[in-house]
Amino acid sequence: MSNVAVIGGGAAGLMAAYAAAKNGNSVVVFEKNEKCGKKIYITGKGRCNVTHDCLPGEFLENVVRNPKFMTGAIYAFSPSDCVDFFTESGLPLKLERGGRYFPVSDKASDVTKCLENKCKNSGVTFKFNEKVTELQVLNSTLSGITTEKGAYSFDKAIVCTGGVSYPSTGSTGDGYTFAESVGHEIVDVKPALCGLNLAGDFYGRLQGLTLKNVALDVRINDKSVKRFFGEMLFTHFGVSGPIILSASSIINRAEPKSVKLSVDLKPALSAEKLDMRLLRDFADNKNKDLGNCLKNLLPAAIIPVISERCKIPLGKKVNAVTHAERVKLVEILKNFILNVVSLRGFDEAVVTSGGVDIKQINPKTMESKIVKGLYFCGEVLDLDAFTGGFNLQIAFSTGFCAGNSIKD
Ligand SMILES: Cc1cc2nc3c(=O)[nH]c(=O)nc-3n(C[C@H](O)[C@H](O)[C@H](O)COP(=O)(O)OP(=O)(O)OC[C@H]3O[C@@H](n4cnc5c(N)ncnc54)[C@H](O)[C@@H]3O)c2cc1C
Q1: Which helix (H) or strand (E) holds 400?
Q2: Residue 228 Cα to ligand 1 middle (Å)
Q3: CATH topology of domain 3-191+350-405
Q4: For ligand 1, is residue 398 a contact (CB within 6 Å)?
Q5: For residue 242, how far is its CA from the centre of ligand 1 (angstroms)?
Q6: Each residue's pLDDT tens digit, 231-280
Q7: Strand, helix or coil at 103?
Q8: How many Å apart are CA 303 and CA 231, to the nearest integer?
Q9: DSSP string over 245-259
């Protein structure tokens, strides 16, 4: 039996604590907040998208950084294991649109309660309002931890302190300091799953406009790197919404100047079909001006911006629109460019990209390759994924692997 300290009572920490305790270890969770799961509480807009309905292969396709590292962990505790775990623990889940699992109760707090109950029933003890400040290491082996309240001896410590996004929940990057202090490399942290500040000022006029069923082509140095399909939203700073959040995770390590986002406002129509559709609309509305005619095709708010970009006055009668102008209009509708200035900050980023370098971590057990008895799980690691329940699944799978590997 080992004495195990779990540092951080979030998704990864609670799962790691439970998994270690069920193997007969003595486990203490140190949480600097007055309670566990402050971040879980705000997940999925308070409903917590616990995991995704997918096989491990599809899961790995949704991991942005270091999917290969996650292979062992996702097979050890898969999304379907996660669904079974919560269901069998008295928290039934329901499957919603887009493969997202939520608690039937629609309460994120129930996820924390369920995990805490599992821990308590397995003998885990909790120390709240106790911030861990240091790791103690002797001969490259973990020997204890120091908190603001004192020093404790432990055989093992599992660092589950999260990243640096939404720091008000307690994730303030403490785990990086612990890792560095014992010789681990930290991969630069960047905001991920966040909105994007855009160049220009056109977006101010579009604030509040949601574009549904559009395609977003992400280009870095004029090379298309990823295409997303779905919904986006114009805001006071630029753009946000599901496909923009996903794009942010892809571009967060590129020079903003090298990034171009191309929105296809009519992805269901090829350029030729869109041209034919315009010709038909123009023929049916010969005496109308362009601004009115385009209302059949586009949300009203974006029409003035489109007219400016293709340099056709809104008031121009459609029967006077030239072939060249129509070609330009089609081009703008299929390739509406957004120039990114920067990403929104960590205060608004759903996850942190970067963190403890996975090269120095055993992917089967999450144990440090530098310090024996020291483990890292969840967002503190250089792992992040798209939205859809994948990030919590990373926390649960890595937490499970670490805790479960402690048996002697
Ligand atoms: C607004 C929002 C919505 C989200 N929605 C979803 C969603 O629906 N589905 C999904 O899959 N993912 C979602 N995520 C991402 C997901 O919440 C995180 O990836 C996940 O919670 C990470 O878990 P973690 O345990 O690694 O870290 P955290 O949840 O950040 O937990 C870390 C814990 O460690 C504690 N701690 C830190 N330092 C110390 C210290 N020195 N001593 C003691 N304790 C310490 C913190 O107080 C905290 O409780 C969302 C994130 C945000 C911000």
Answers
A1: helix 390-405
A2: 26
A3: FAD/NAD(P)-binding domain (3.50.50)
A4: no
A5: 20
A6: 999 999 999 999 999 999 999 999 999 999 999 999 999 999 999 999 99
A7: strand
A8: 18
A9: HHHHHHHTTS-GGGE
- pLDDT tens for each residue of 94-147: 999 999 999 999 999 999 999 999 999 999 999 999 999 999 999 999 999 999
Ligand 1 neighbour 193 (Cβ under 6 A): no
Q: Check pocket membership of 244 for ligand 1, CB cut-off 6 A.
A: no
User: Which atom of ligand 1 is least distant from the CA of 166?
Assistant: 53
Q: Check residue 286 and give its pLDDT.
A: 85
pLDDT at residue 408 is higher than 80: no
Q: How far is the CA of 35 from the centre of ligand 1 (A)?
A: 13
- pLDDT score of 287: 87
Amino acid at 149: K
Q: Please work out whether the CB of residue 216 comes within 6 Å of at least one atom of ligand 1.
A: no
Domain ranges of the chain: 3-191+350-405, 195-344
The whole-number pLDDT of residue 84 equals 98
Instruction: Quote the ligand 1 centre to 328 CA distance (angstroms).
Output: 47
Is 289:363 a contact under the CB 8 Å cutoff?
no
